[in-house]
Amino acid sequence: MISRREILAALAAPVLPQGVEILNPRARVPLSWIIDDSTCLVNLNRFAIPQFADAMGRDRYPQDWRSMPHEIPDSFVRRFAEWSREAGVKGKYSVVPFPACTGRLDREVPGWTRQEIEDSVRLVREQVAPNWDIHPEMITHTRIIDLKTGHPVEQRGRAWMENWEWCAGRSADEIAAYIAYALSILRNLELPCEGVTSPGGFGAGALAEYSLAAGQAVRQVFRAEIPHYFRNLFDKGNESVAPRIEPGPVVSIYACTGDWTGNWDCSREPEPDRYISADLKRGRMVEVIERGEPAIALSHWTGVWFNGRELGFKAMQEVVRRLDARFGRAVRWMKLAEIARYWAVKSLAKVTLEEGGLSVDSPYDCPDFTVRWPASSLRRLREVTSRAALEPGAWTRDGPAHVIACVPLRKGLNRIG
Ligand SMILES: [Zn+2]
């Protein structure tokens, strides 16, 4: 077992020279929206809830799953994708590869024709993926799959569900093989993937092993340079919600809200005010943006669609309108992979103050590295008159004695100034 303390010690970040500060990308607070429990066509809840009830008891899962539609239609996915493109909203969208054991998306899903599934996958690949990272949410989001047979394991109960403590006591290699199986289904579908999402509490009891396994599996199957995963959130309080760089490295992304767009099972009316209030003054997103940390919201696809009433979708649209009205160009929507890359560079790059500028030794490319330091002017970049106008290749003055520069970094040694 690797302890949390050992992980942190292994990642002692390089110390920045006095007066140098790495800012948010383009000096704007990153926003992102995490969508869980989506897949192609299958309404996950309709099929998952009886399996949850079997493992955890009917009293904990009293939802009337028999009355739920089997399908979340592609016409809705298309409208959602169009809206996100027009509004510039970005984030993560799950594609559960073998949703609730109904069938593998790359083989056969009973209830739909092969053509319907292929069309649905293409819709995700062409319309959704440009603005949304695609993640598997393990294999089924319900029963553990025996990787040798491809069927659910014989054992039943909560220890044999992906949502609970199956990982406890298992090695990073064993967990990585499980995650790689999920990823390989998405690879067969030609869906690009740089991260994974934990269904429920997947990883519980083996957090360090799970973190290593997520990085290992994403590197192995997709050759991703900077793998990331989503498992954790703080929906209140002062704890940092910035991404954490863990050994591998792999980036752990934190959401900063609960699901306030209807909950995973459509059990609550959406509460957009909890993200940002109608008068634009309060709410968890406002709190985190004012702190200057990436503000990453959370929803479940099932509640976004809300059994056809689209209540979660309406709430999302309202929240995005309010964020834009309040913050405008002080914020910027980014995919999780973009945020992960920035934070990996921010944590691992070595910055040195030199005569007339900075040198930055970066482990990765970074398209919009933004840094503030004491200097009077820069010669080789284009000067802009405000922070809001910063873009790669530009610099601006910040008070009498500082400059802020935004530059595309290349992997290796860079000179800014
Ligand atoms: Zn989920």
Could you explain the architecture of this structure?
The protein has 417 residues and is of the alpha/beta class. It has 2 domains: 4-13 and 29-340, Glycoside hydrolase/deacetylase (TIM Barrel, Alpha-Beta Barrel), CATH 3.20.20; 349-416, no CATH class. The protein is 30% helix and 20% strand. It is built from 10 helices and 17 strands. The strands form 4 sheets. Strands 1-13-16-15-14 form a 5-stranded mixed beta sheet. Strands 2, 3, 4, 9 and 10 form a 5-stranded parallel beta sheet that branches. A 4-stranded mixed beta sheet has the order 5-6-8-7. Strand 15 (394-398) and strand 16 form a beta hairpin. It is globular.
In short:
With 417 residues, the protein is α/β, with parallel strands linked by helices.
